[in-house]
Design goal:
24% of the residues lie in helices and 52% in strands. It is an alpha+beta fold. It has an 8-stranded antiparallel barrel with strand order 1-2-3-4-5-6-7-8.
Length: 143
C-alpha cells in the first residue's frame, strides 16, 4: 500500500511539474518583454536636422530609471554633451529637456536647452529633438 501511494504521489508530481513550469515561463515572458520595451539603457544612433547641413549627427543617450522617474546623459558626438531632465509622458512619448553644458569642439557654443521626446518602436528608440522651431528626427539602437 505504501508503494502504491508513493507511485501515485510521484506520478502526480510528474504531471503537475510541467504545468507549473509552463506557468512560470508564461509569467516570465511578459516581464522580459516589458523590460525589453523600456527606454532605460544606452542608446546610440543618429539624427537628421531639418533644414541644416549637419545631417546625420551621432548621438548617445544613457537613460536610467528610478521608480517612475528617469535621468540620464546625452552626447552629441563631436559637438556637445549634457544631462537629461525627465518632464513626463504624453502621447506614448517620454519627454526630456537636454541641458547641454559641455562643448566637445573648441570654440563651439552649445544650445543651452533642447527638448527631446523618445518612444520605443520595436528594438529601436525613436527621438524627436526640437528647439526654436527647428526639429531633428533620429533612430537609436541599444549599445
Amino acid at each position: 500500500m505504501i508503494r502504491t501511494l508513493l507511485v501515485s504521489a510521484v506520478t502526480t508530481l510528474a504531471l503537475v511539474a510541467p504545468a507549473a513550469a509552463a506557468d512560470a515561463s508564461t509569467d516570465a515572458a511578459p516581464r522580459e518583454a516589458q523590460l525589453a520595451a523600456g527606454i532605460a539603457g544606452t542608446w546610440t544612433g543618429g539624427f537628421d536636422v531639418t533644414g541644416s547641413n549637419a545631417q546625420d549627427s551621432g548621438v548617445v543617450l544613457k537613460i536610467k530609471k528610478k521608480g517612475n522617474k528617469y535621468t540620464g546623459t546625452v552626447t552629441h558626438k563631436g559637438f556637445c554633451a549634457g544631462t537629461l531632465k525627465f518632464k513626463g509622458r504624453s502621447g506614448g512619448y517620454f519627454k526630456f529637456t537636454e541641458k547641454l553644458t559641455k562643448s566637445l569642439k573648441p570654440g563651439l557654443v552649445c544650445t543651452p536647452t533642447v527638448d527631446l521626446k523618445v518612444k520605443r518602436k520595436g528594438g529601436k528608440l525613436k527621438g524627436v529633438w526640437s528647439n526654436n522651431g527647428q526639429t531633428a528626427n533620429g533612430t537609436m539602437r541599444r549599445g
